Amino acid sequence: MNIQDAQKQVDDWIKNHGVRYFNELTNMAQLTEEVGEVARIIARRYGEQSEKESDKNKDLGEELADVMFVVLCLANQTGVNLQEAFDKKLDLKTKRDHDRHHNNEKLK
């Protein structure tokens, strides 16, 4: 599935199950909340914080999917073609960062 297909799938889901999109500010708050849940798992599972018993069954993939869902909602409701924006960003990063990363001593 490409990003355009994902945007359409989310839009169809909202129309069939969600009544309407939450407003942009509500979705931004939701995105922040979901990113916080991802950060908690990463910090405790892969970082230096100890993982609480209640966090051990948290599914990182599910939390990342929550982030993706809200990002797709925000793109839809603000008229952003995320496929086009992503392709443009990847092209920019490829041109800008290729040599920079290959020449970065910290990455060797």
Automatic annotation (TrEMBL):
> What Pfam families does the record tag this protein with?
MazG
The portions of this protein that span the membrane are none
What domain of life does the native source organism fall in? Bacteria
- Supply the SUPFAM superfamilies for this chain: all-alpha NTP pyrophosphatases (SSF101386)
InterPro entries per the UniProt record, alphabetical: MazG-like_dom, MazG-related_YpjD, YpjD/YvdC
Q: Which parts of the sequence belong to the NTP pyrophosphohydrolase MazG-like domain? A: 23-99
Q: What is this protein called?
A: Nucleotide pyrophosphohydrolase
Q: Which organism is it from?
A: Tenacibaculum geojense
